[in-house]
Amino acid sequence: SQMFERSSDAILLLRDGVIEKANPAAVRLFCCKTEERLHGRSLDDFSPLKQPDGVPSAGVSAQRVEEAIRKGNSRYDWHYLDCEGQQFWAEVLMTSISLDHKHLFYVVVRDISERKRTEQSLHLAAQVFENSHDAILLTDHGRRVIAINRAYSAVTGFVPDDILGKPVSAFRSGLEDESFYREVWLSVDNAGHWQGETWARHSDGSLFPAWVNITAIRDSAGQVSNYMGIVSDITERKKTEEQTRHLAEHDFLTDLPNRVLLLDRLSLALAAARRSGEKLAILFLDLDRFKYVNDSLGHSFGDRLLREVSARLVRCVREADTVSRQGGDEFVIILTDIGNAERAAHVAETILRAVEQEYALDEHQLHISTSIGIAMYPADGADIDTLLKHADVAMYHAKQDGRNNCQFFSSEMNARVVERAGIENGLRRAVAEQQFELVFQPEVEIASNTVIGMEALLRWRHPELGLLLPERFIDVAQEAGLMIAIGNWVLQEACRQAQVWHEQGRLLIVSVNLSRAQFTHKGLLDSVGDALAASGLAAGCLELELTENILQDGGPRVTETLAALHKLGVRLSLDDFGTGYSRLGQLKDYPIDQLKIAQVFMNGGTDTTAIRTIIAMARSMHMTVIAEGVETNEQLELLRALGCDRYQGFLADATLSAAVGRVIDPPKVAEAASAPAPGHDPTLPAVPAADGR
Ligand code: C2E
Ligand code: MG
Ligand code: MG
After folding, report:
1. For residue 534, which of 490, 506, 496 has the smallest C-alpha distance?
2. For residue 532, which of 58, 267, 370, 649 sits 20 to 30 Å off, Cα-Cα?
3. What is the pLDDT of residues 466-518, one digit of tens each?
């Protein structure tokens, strides 16, 4: 009775399945205040209707009762609802006692809610551990492996047998040195954790990049009892990162490094060269006339050509060098550790030869060349910007030098570039401020010794530099996009002047030089038409001078443009003839009225054969022929003997300026033409002469 009354375990006495007696601990456990409230009830009355997993719970204790009768006792865990409706877990020990041939049960009920909770959370933790997609490894405080989960085996290939009980240090990648691991463990022990990227070893011996997270686990006394490591295989992530970076740093079309990566590599190369005292070469390449390929064959063709050029460039340099595409048809190459400038020149030469080899794309065989500028470190600059700029300047000079060649940067080049920039700025103002003038050089008919036309030659009266000849500014004007405006002014002014002569009775043809930019510009016909309309000049009195190069580079619309000009009624003259590479067959098809024999055949040592050939050619194509740059009477006599139609040059200028003082009766021009003046004095209209050179 004492034991029953004072036991801290709840004790119930069951008879016929219902509670007959309950001790005070039982009253407390079931929260029913008085023992009476327990009397006459079965244990099932305190069992919730549903088990925690939802299965109806009726009859459970009946089974236990049977078992207790059979075996003498029954032990089980069950959960009950106390009188206040609170659920608790209990460990039940039911002992059967036979008394008076009746079964009594002595039942000890112990609250094990706390233990159940712990068990449950342990179970949960184990589930989480086992089912986690993170590869987890647990060690004891001595860093020996005590557990790994399934994911760990999946990621690393190691199964528990391989690894349990071994020190984690036995599974290092071998790629990090001892100091790395020292740092890691120092951080874990001091800060409680470490995370970072490193290499991990797979059971098959391969290595993979891993993100590792290590946490120290402390016991209730604050001592490190375990370590937990979480390992993620970041191979895929690294690959994507790598791809993203590759895209950001490479040119989409050719897969060469782009400008971003070039600058990066260049700064590294410069730093290395500074340290080692080595030289660097920066090559700036621009393909020659690439725009023509693009325009005539289409962009996708141009793209393929660029890819092929890139491949050739890469083959010309060493592994350590960088070939990058800057966009368009521009490439920059860094040659590291180049030794001397001759070596750089040698590479550039190799590149020139490689690029100019024929390209076979589909049924097209085509050729392209490149111009290369070279700047050397340290001679031509100490920083990236200067070196790139100077390589660009040198490239520009390679272009000026006829393309398909390479040029080293020099300070004189730079001076010219600076001058050029000055010219360009000045030109913009010159257009607005009307600083241009025209001078006229007479064109004389040899047979009649009559001035029959005037060539308009452009001059720029520069506010500081004085009178400038076209060679100083025409190219700059073309590249700066100013040539259309200037050319239009020339057309207007030349036509206006010619009309003034006409009104004075001097029937002269005016010749106007066309630039490449003007010829290819879509507004050319309108410009010519406007100049004629504004001046009132008859179209037949305007002659346009083109060069062979313009015709060749003018693109696919050359024939159309020439036909349209011809239809307008203006005359067409081929300037500087004999210096280009016109194909005769092609010339025949063009509506050209006159060939103008290039000056070199006069002044580069008179080339009789060439002159004779050109005259014969002109005859066969029913064109007139004029010689320019005629300076002496001997030259004129030769031309006369060879049957040349016309001439112009300083000889005519000189006689003209000598004759300017004479009063020439304008109406007599035509008369004079029929009766040539004695000697070689051409009959003169009083017009401003070309400036003497
Ligand atoms: P071009 O059309 O072949 O002009 C002939 C050039 O030779 C002129 O030089 C002229 O002054 C020069 N010259 C004339 N007679 C003689 C001579 O007996 N001996 C020598 N050595 N030279 C002589 P300029 O005026 O400097 O013009 C050079 C070039 O500039 C022209 O060559 C022409 O292609 C271009 N140009 C001139 N004016 C214009 C223009 O208004 N528009 C365009 N687009 N180009 C022009
Ligand atoms: Mg000319
Ligand atoms: Mg000429």
Report:
1. 496
2. 649
3. 999 999 999 889 888 899 999 999 999 999 999 999 999 999 999 999 999 99
- Segment (H or E) for 565: helix 558-568
Within this chain, do residues 565 and 641 fall inside the same structural domain, yes or no?
Answer: yes
Considering the domain architecture, whether residues 649 and 558 belong to the same structural domain is answered as: yes
For residue 441, which atom of ligand 1 is closest to its CA?
A: 14
Residue 142: partners with Cβ closer than 8 Å, 6 or more residues away: 167
- In short, whether 575's Cβ falls inside 6 Å of ligand 1 is yes
629 lines ligand 1 (CB under 6 A): yes
CA of 262 to the centre of ligand 2 (A): 45
Give nearest CA residue, ligand 1 atom 22: 629
**Cβ distance 313 to 331 under 8 Å?**
yes
Q: What's the CATH code of the domain at 519?
A: 3.20.20.450
Encoding tokens for residue 384?
A: 């990236």
CA of 598 to the centre of ligand 2 (A): 9
Query: Residue 515: inside a domain, yes or no?
Result: yes
Q: How far is the CA of 629 from the centre of ligand 1 (A)?
A: 9
The CATH number for 176's domain is 3.30.450.20
Cα–Cα–Cα angle for 73, 75, 77, nearest 5°?
155
Tokens of 477: 């004007």
In a shared domain, residues 440 and 369: no
Whole-number Å distance, alpha carbon 438 to ligand 1 midpoint, is: 11
Residue 202 has pLDDT above 50, yes or no: yes
Determine, yes or no, domain membership for 415.
no
488 lines ligand 1 (CB under 6 A): no
CA distance 311 to 254: 8
Number of neighbouring beta carbons within 10 Å of residue 571: 21
Cβ of residue 441 lying under 6 Å from some atom of ligand 1: yes
376, part of any domain: yes
- Is it the case that residue 108 has pLDDT exceeding 70? yes
Q: Which residues have CB under 8 Å from 315's CB, separation 6+?
A: 354
Query: 634: CA distance to ligand 2 center in Å?
Result: 23
Torsion of CA 595, 598, 602, 604, to 10 degrees: -160
Using CA atoms, how far apart are residues 377 and 566, in angstroms rounded to an integer? 55
User: Could you say which ligand is closest to the alpha carbon of residue 474?
Assistant: 1
| Minimum CA distance residue for ligand 1 atom 43 | 513
pLDDT at 557: 85
Helix (H) or strand (E) holding 322: strand 322-327
Of 386, 409, 432, the residue at which a domain comes to its end is 409
Give the CATH number of the domain where residue 348 resides. Answer: 3.30.70.270
Closest C-alpha to ligand 1, atom 44: 515
State the distance from the centre of ligand 1 to the C-alpha of 637, rounded, in angstroms: 23
How remote is the C-alpha of 101 from its chain's centroid?
100
Decide if 57 contacts 87 (C-beta within 8 A): no
State the residue range of the domain holding 263. Answer: 250-409
Among 66-70, 241-245, 514-518, 664-668, the least confident range = 664-668
In order, the DSSP letters of 640-687 are HHHT--EE-SHHHHHHHHHHTTS---TTHHHHHHHSPPSTT--B----
Please state, in angstroms and rounded to a whole number, the distance separating the CA atoms of residues 126 and 318: 58
pLDDT bucket at 297, cuts 50 / 70 / 90 = confident
What ligand has the least distance to the C-alpha of 691?
Answer: 1
Q: Tell which one of 431, 520, 628, 633 to mutate to probe ligand 1, the residue whose CB is within 8 A of the most ligand atoms.
A: 628
- For residue 623, report the distance from its CA to the centre of ligand 2, in Å: 17
- Top mutation candidate among 427, 438, 457, 595 for ligand 1, by most atoms within 8 Å of CB: 457
Instruction: Answer whether residue 688 is part of any domain.
Output: no
How many angstroms does the Cα of residue 574 sit away from the middle of ligand 3?
A: 9
